[in-house]
Amino acid sequence: MSPRPVIIDCDPGQDDAVAxxxxxxxxxxxxxxxxxxxxGNVPLALTQRNARIMCDLAGRADVPVFAxxxxxxxxxxxxxxxxxxxxxxxxxxxxxxxxxxxxxxxVDFLVEAIKAxxxxxxxxxxxxxxxxxATAFGREPGIAANVREIVLMGGAxxxxxxxxxxxxxxxxxxxxxADAVFRCGRPLVVMGLDVTHQxxxxxxxxxxxxxxxxxxxxxxxxxxxxxHRHDSAKYGTEGGPLxxxxxxxxxxxxxxxxxxxxxxxxxxxxxxTAGHTAVxxxxxxxxxxxxxxxxxxDADGFYDLLTRRxxxxxxxAP
Length: 318
Ligand code: RIB
Ligand code: CA
Prior knowledge:
about 325 residues; 10 strands; Inosine-uridine Nucleoside N-ribohydrolase, Chain A
């Protein structure tokens, strides 16, 4: 089967970086048409640079990288340096990337690439605030029909919020964009905190990645060594949840996950609960089941997949 064309919209972020590595290690499964950066964990100038650094490390300077929206559609910016550090990828040694930044705006690229999608459509993987995606849909609503599915990291239901008591960061930063995407009518696969909090980067799992001893694995282990210090203290776990790679892992091995078709709606009006994802898990309303709400994962299987794919970048076999 030929690899599916995907666009990865992200805000690197250590966990976004690992999602990029997983995708770039899997050319037989995903054909990365482009990477679009959005403001999120850190400002856009850093998220676009960080995405390009990951392309360099993975030897994929061929992947076009675009900078997109530098702030939410209608709200003030919110960033997460307290989680990711001032660079967004604290924990690894930074360098100026050789991978170029396209001079086209990410939203222009999204519109054109989605318009030009093949018959089976193009898949959007979104691991940051949904500002770029929603802006593209808003500019040309007709392009959504060319989207095969949107696999996104965002939202929370049973886990509660991680940036406010009731909202997960990606949705909270731009709830208006999230609301537009959740209403777009295309198939959504939603990896919320309910599932991503099950994939904890424990010391043993990080050590297995470090033992691969290649540049990508070393960078991954170093970033995770930094990334989990905040979440370990916050959640009392022996590592941080590896949120964003769950999206790419779904494309590579959907059998690792379990989900339920549900209505997922986004709160945009309340100042108390803005960005909350109301997941109608028991279908107590007649709202349409617009999303597959993923609620379970084989965590060992996830890390086995991730480690085996990172081993493709050289060094020692797992
Ligand atoms: O809430 C976790 C999400 O917010 C992840 O995508 C992380 O990278 C941040 O963007
Ligand atoms: Ca992210």
